Amino acid sequence: MSSIQVAGDVPARLEDGFTRVAREAGLPGAFPRAVLDEAEWVAEVPRLPGKDLTDLPFVTVDPPGSMDLDQALHLERLRGGFRVWYAVADVGAFVRPGGAVDREARERGETVYLPTGSVPLHPRVLSEGAASLLPGAARPAAVWRIDLDAEGRLVGADVQRALVRSRERLDYAYVQAAVDTGTADATLGLLAEIGALRVRLERERGGVTLPTPEQEVVFAGGGYRLAYRLPLPAEAWNAQISLLTGMAAAAMMLDAEIGVLRVLPPPRQDDLDKVRRVAAALDVPWPDGASYGQVVHGLDPKVPRQAAFLQESRVLLRGAGYVAFDGAPPALADHAAVGAPYAHVTAPLRRLVDRYATEVCLAVAAGEPVPVEVEKALEELPALMTASGRRAGTVERACVDLVEAFALRDRLGESFDATVIDVTARGDGGQVQLADPAVIARCDGALPLGERVTVRLTRADPATREVRFTLA
Description:
- By secondary structure, this protein is α+β, with helices and mostly antiparallel strands.
- It folds into 3 domains: 3-263 and 321-404, no CATH class; 269-315, no CATH class; 409-471, CATH 2.40.50.140.
- The protein has helices at 11-24, 33-44, 100-108, 124-130, 172-180, 186-204, 233-256, 269-281, 292-297, 304-312, 352-366, 372-378, 381-408, and strands spanning 3-5, 58-62, 71-78, 81-89, 112-114, 117-119, 138-149, 154-171, 214-220, 223-229, 258-263, 321-326, 334-335, 340-341, 415-423, 429-434, 440-444, 452-461, 466-471.
- It starts with a strand and ends with a strand.
- 43% of the residues are buried.
- GO terms for molecular function: RNA binding; RNA nuclease activity.
- Residues 50-367 form the RNB domain.
- InterPro entries: NA-bd_OB-fold, RNase_II/R, RNase_II_C_S1, RNR_Ribonuclease.
């Protein structure tokens, strides 16, 4: 794995920089005393459901060290298909509408992650304690039961409140190794099988999952480093179960004519035409009749021209947002990257909108009216989530920029091998991606898109978090 390493004797300066990033972004600080007091109280007296599903052997699959465990799953093979049991932390069992925790969560919108830790949506006594689906503990949950046919297509879905108990906390590497070595138990083996079926269906309906490496800040060995990380297949399988649940939730809300959806408009024709021209220029195959999603599924980000195409084509995925409705379904109900209507319901410990969407689905599934306080809140959610999402994205990019600038600050004038992944319309520069160290930054000069080049570092300023190169 290519990475950029920051020596272990300087993390204090970087941590000061992360603190400045949080301050500039307006991230909230410590929870007010009233919020903490209420959280500690409700953690002891949640509204427990009457249904008991603690006999189902749920497991969680998350990044190593995660404590805010939103989802647990158990998978079964049926005659002619599959059953997905998907338990989602029931935050509504703890958070009182209009209470101090609820009001504070509406201010925060979502958990924001920094290399030094997180700024959580809810006090940790809830998000990493009483409401988290930690192994061995009985927890209230919204439990989805989703039936699929033998091809992985949705047959039916239901959701109800129930008590669950996760048997084990697993991480992606463990799941991948178990599947690869043939030692996976029934649920993990079915996760690979169902996940692969759902990936194939995603391609059929024109959904898009970009096979691009993530650039992330990692703390290891007493210092920080930037690394490119390609997600494991196990992460894609797990994500498909979450997507499946979100699609089932969206269908349920659309049928009931009330709810909140995550939407993405289809790409504009001029953007699509531009991306097709880029594909032709970079020799990226785009067969007649193939959708954008079908094209990108077969690409390899380690191939320079394909990496450049993946970067350039991101323009087709811009404009995601939320839409609330109470009555006729919205004009735009689909999420273009999912290839179907979709809703966020699987991360309520970390994202405000999921709690409200889940409450709508629980009411609809039970044949009951949506609670008045939930119905009233729907209209405000799109603006709240747009603002919090923008803030979280700004923080993530600023932290990466800071580590890049800090690690390269003493290497001005050095040359590096890079791939050109973006060029400006004026042709006077663009973005380059270095293989080692793991940096993506602005570069000046007449850059050949999709080609390997040698670049020279001209600027690396931790104060402004700016890194800049020029063609060597």
